[in-house]
Design brief:
InterPro entries: 5hmC_binding, EVE_domain, PUA-like_sf, THYN1-like_EVE. It holds the Pfam family EVE. This is EVE domain-containing protein. The mean pLDDT is 97. This protein is 27% helix and 35% strand. The protein has 137 residues and is α+β, with helices and mostly antiparallel strands.
Length: 137
C-alpha cells in the first residue's frame, strides 16, 4: 500500500466535511496540476493518505483512504483532468503542524517540505510512520 498527502483549504473542504460524507466519500476534484494528477493516477484502492489543512491550520489532521481509482473529474469537461474518490478513515490523535514537520530532520525530504504547492503528494513509508508517531506525542 502506498501513502499520500491530500491538501485542502479547510474553508473550502475540510476533514470534517469529508467525514460528513461517510462511507461514500467524495471526489478529490478540482486538481489542475499534472504532477498531482499523475499521483492520483498511480493510486490504488485502499491506499491511505494524510488529510492536510492548507492556508488555515497548516497541519495534518486526519487519515483518508482511496475508494475509487482515477477517473474523469466531474468538475470539468477537459479530458486531461482526473481525480480519485476518498473517504475519511480517522482523525489523528493531535494535528501535526507544518512547523513541526519542518523541524523534524528525518522529514527534510518530504514533499510537503520540498514541494509545498503540490496538492496531492507521495509520502514514503518512513515519513508516514514518523508523522503518525509525532501525532502521538
Amino acid at each position: 500500500m502506498a501513502h499520500w498527502l491530500f491538501k485542502s483549504e479547510p474553508f473550502k473542504f475540510s476533514f470534517t466535511d469529508l467525514k460528513a460524507k461517510g462511507a461514500t466519500g467524495a471526489e478529490w476534484d478540482g486538481v489542475r496540476n499534472y504532477q498531482a494528477r499523475n499521483n492520483m493516477r498511480a493510486m490504488q484502492l485502499g491506499d491511505q493518505g494524510f488529510f492536510y489543512h492548507s492556508n488555515e491550520g497548516l497541519a495534518v489532521v486526519g487519515i483518508c483512504e482511496v475508494i475509487a481509482l482515477s477517473h474523469p473529474d466531474s468538475t470539468t469537461d477537459d479530458p486531461r483532468w482526473d481525480c480519485v474518490d476518498v473517504r475519511a478513515v480517522r482523525d489523528i490523535k493531535r494535528p501535526v503542524t507544518l512547523a513541526e514537520i519542518k523541524a523534524e530532520p528525518s522529514l527534510s525530504k518530504m514533499s510537503l517540505v520540498t514541494s509545498m504547492r503540490l496538492s496531492v503528494q507521495p509520502v514514503t513509508d518512513e515519513e508516514w510512520e514518523t508523522v503518525l508517531a509525532m501525532a502521538e506525542r
